[in-house]
Design a protein that fits this description.
With 465 residues, the protein is mostly helical. The protein has a domain at 166-453. 51% of the residues lie in helices and 5% in strands. It has 14 helices and five strands. The protein has a five-stranded mixed sheet with strand order 2-1-3-4-5. The radius of gyration is 21 Å and the shape is globular.
Length: 465
């Protein structure tokens, strides 16, 4: 199987540089650290999708190390966007020297509702005491505002720590979810590799075929969300608060549900905590790691989606091309955001795929009507449900965009798109059109072929490290 032509610009570079990391060493690599630091601060990072692929490649083998790199990059982004020259130099030097940056956040309980004293700090990664430097967010107990501090010096204006954090998370959330994509790839590959072990279901069984197809489809949907969110930082920065929050909200959930669907295939080994099966469970637990970083993605989505005003136009097609050319990233204030419109149509499609697209377009019209009439801005449960539905429809639009701009390989066929949109439709609680099962065999065979040939299961289809 060949690599996607449009991915050649970044994928091989990412794989090669990730291999410079000593996997399992528990410490970031100075060589890889250079790819996480912007050029203006002495690093080599020009494109924001490069570190996204780097941490994914590391995450396939060592999730803890990948998260350490991702959080260092997230902290660097916060300092790079809002720090002084001295702070940027200090943060960059830490990472360039192979050190680790960590974030210290207050707990998630608002000050007004806390009765047991000041906020407790949440270390990100959890073993934050091993970090070489910290970006700390302290909370004002009077009004609940946050202030960011690094090395004893304020990062940004006082009381503006929430903006500092959210600005950094527009890059950080897709980065963290990308680690989960790598881990989910390893889980699916581990289940396929377990075939033949006593007690494990045959890969030819209907249960295994469905589970492998669903997990592969969920991984591809998640990678569509990540790819669009990261590339939009270059091409559509006004959308990035929504796009990154959607990746953070849906990505870990899709990856976890897809991976958990594989457990019945393992039979009596499904809950083993030892050996290779125990390692699979360890990776499965890491799939929800991004949900620990910063405010809830659904909270951010609800605030953005139900905000009064018109929807912006859909994101440009360039955000849907993995590895395609990119201009320099553009920094915009987190307040300058828009909720992108949904482009839910496909040219010249019929059959089950056409029925899925029409079903999703109808659902999108209903959600837009809720926003237009103000019903979606009602009670918290109603507004959160509307934001969740809009995020799922956005995931479908991302998949359609990737298929629309894809090379004529697997991503250019209707099979993966039918499987991916079927998973979205199910989560929206809508009935599946007849004939969608026909995509199962093609996606299943693609997944097995990639596992056998050492090819990643994501959009880039690069070599497995």
């Amino acid at each position: 199987m060949r690599e996607r032509g449009t991915a050649r610009e970044t994928a091989p570079v990412a794989r090669g540089r990730a291999s410079e990391t000593v996997l399992g060493a528990g410490r970031p690599s100075a060589r890889l650290g250079r790819e996480l630091v912007a050029v203006r601060s002495g690093g080599r990072m020009v494109r924001l999708d490069t570190p996204t692929l780097l941490v994914r490649a590391v995450g396939r083998r060592d999730v803890s190390l990948a998260l350490a790199h991702a959080v260092s990059a997230l902290a660097c982004a916060a300092v790079d966007l809002h720090g002084t020259r001295e702070q940027r130099t200090a943060a960059a030097r830490t990472v360039l020297d192979g050190g680790r940056l960590a974030l210290l956040l207050p707990d998630a309980t608002p000050a007004a509702h806390r009765t047991d004293g000041p906020a407790t700090a949440t270390r990100l990664p959890p073993r934050g005491e091993e970090a070489d430097a910290h970006v700390t967010f302290t909370e004002d107990m009077a009004d609940g505002s946050l202030t960011a501090v690094m090395a004893g010096t304020m990062l940004g204006p006082p009381g503006q720590g929430a903006r500092v954090l959210l600005d950094a998370l527009r890059f950080g959330w897709p980065l963290l979810v990308s680690v989960g994509v790598g881990a989910a790839d390893a889980v699916l590959r581990g289940v396929v590799g377990a075939a033949g072990v006593a007690g494990v279901r045959s890969l030819g069984s209907s249960l295994a075929r469905r589970a492998v197809t669903d997990a592969c489809a969920d991984l591809l949907v998640t990678d569509c969300l990540v790819t669009v969110a990261v590339r939009a930082l270059h091409l559509a920065p006004e959308h990035t608060a929504f796009l990154s929050a959607a990746a953070r909200h849906l990505g870990p959930r899709l990856l976890r549900e897809g991976a958990e669907g594989l457990l019945p295939v393992l039979g009596p080994h499904a809950h083993s905590t030892h050996g290779e099966f125990g390692a699979l469970h360890g990776r499965l637990r890491t799939l929800t790691a991004p949900t620990s970083y910063g405010p809830g993605g659904l909270d951010v989505l609800t605030a953005l989606v139900t905000r009064p005003g018109r929807h912006a136009p859909p994101v440009p097609d360039g955000v849907h091309v993995p590895g395609g050319p990119l201009p320099p990233p553009v920094a915009v204030p987190v307040t300058a955001t828009a909720r992108p419109g949904l482009r839910l149509h496909a040219e010249d499609v019929s059959g089950p795929l056409g029925a899925l697209v029409r079903l999703l377009a109808h659902e999108a019209a209903l959600v837009r009507a809720e926003f237009r009439t103000g019903r979606a801005a009602g009670s918290a449960p109603v507004s959160r449900a509307a934001a969740d539905r809009y995020a799922l429809l956005h995931a479908a639009a991302c998949c359609l965009g990737v298929a629309r701009t894809a090379d004529p390989d697997f991503l250019g066929t209707p099979h993966w798109l039918t499987a991916a949109l079927s998973r979205v439709v199910r989560r929206l609680g809508l009935p599946l059109p007849q004939g969608t099962e026909e995509s199962v065999d093609a996606v299943y065979e693609e997944a097995l072929t990639r596992c056998r040939d050492g090819v990643a299961l994501d959009l880039y289809a690069g070599r497995w490290p």
